């Protein structure tokens, strides 16, 4: 009899837990929907001639980089929403952009099979990295900024040593 009571108590506890979790899930879902519904567009940045493939905030959040099929990278001031610079040098669309962790450099990957490193303050091209056999679709800096990873439509990921003093 004691086992039966214990099983019954356990069954009721399990049911209460399931009801509690279901209620919590509904509450969280409703809360998330509320928050999503109150989000507002802050700005629309216009300047590229065609499709924008990639955007990245600088580590301090003050600048935004955008890469476009128009072969350019644009730098934007987030606060004023003004274009700061247009970086030209790729021969095909720019599919990916990434700031270095210190915010001093910017990498861009392109359909011209190259990666370009830029001085994020002046917009000066620092280097062109060649080695992919197809479009570079993704770029990312390591947390220490010493390595750049690139992904390509040639089915490879490459790691590049990038000198932080550039």
Description:
The protein has one helix at residues 2-38, and strands at residues 52-57, 63-68, 72-77, 83-88, 94-99, 105-110, 114-119, 125-130, 136-141, 147-152, 157-161. It is α+β, with helices and mostly antiparallel strands and 166 residues long. It has 2 domains: 1-40; 52-161, 7 Propeller (Methylamine Dehydrogenase, Chain H), CATH 2.130.10.10.
Q: Order of SSEs, N→C?
A: HEEEEEEEEEEE
The domain tally reads 2
The CATH homologous superfamily of the largest domain is named: YVTN repeat-like/Quinoprotein amine dehydrogenase
Mean pLDDT: 87
Counted beta strands: 11
Whole-number radius of gyration?
A: 24 Å
First-residue to last-residue Cα separation = 79 Å
CATH architecture of the largest domain: 7 Propeller
Class computed from helices, strands and strand pairing? alpha+beta
The strand line-up of the biggest sheet is 1-2-3-4
| Count of runs of 4 or more consecutive helical residues | 1
The percentage helix is: 10-25%
The shape, in one word, is elongated
CATH topology of the largest domain: Methylamine Dehydrogenase, Chain H
CATH class of the largest domain: Mainly Beta
Strand content: 35-45%
Provide a compact summary of the structure:
The strands form three sheets. The chain has a four-stranded antiparallel sheet with strand order 1-2-3-4, with no helix packed on it. The chain has two domains: 1-40; 52-161, YVTN repeat-like/Quinoprotein amine dehydrogenase (Methylamine Dehydrogenase, Chain H), CATH 2.130.10.10. The protein contains one helix and eleven strands; from the N terminus they run αβββββββββββ.
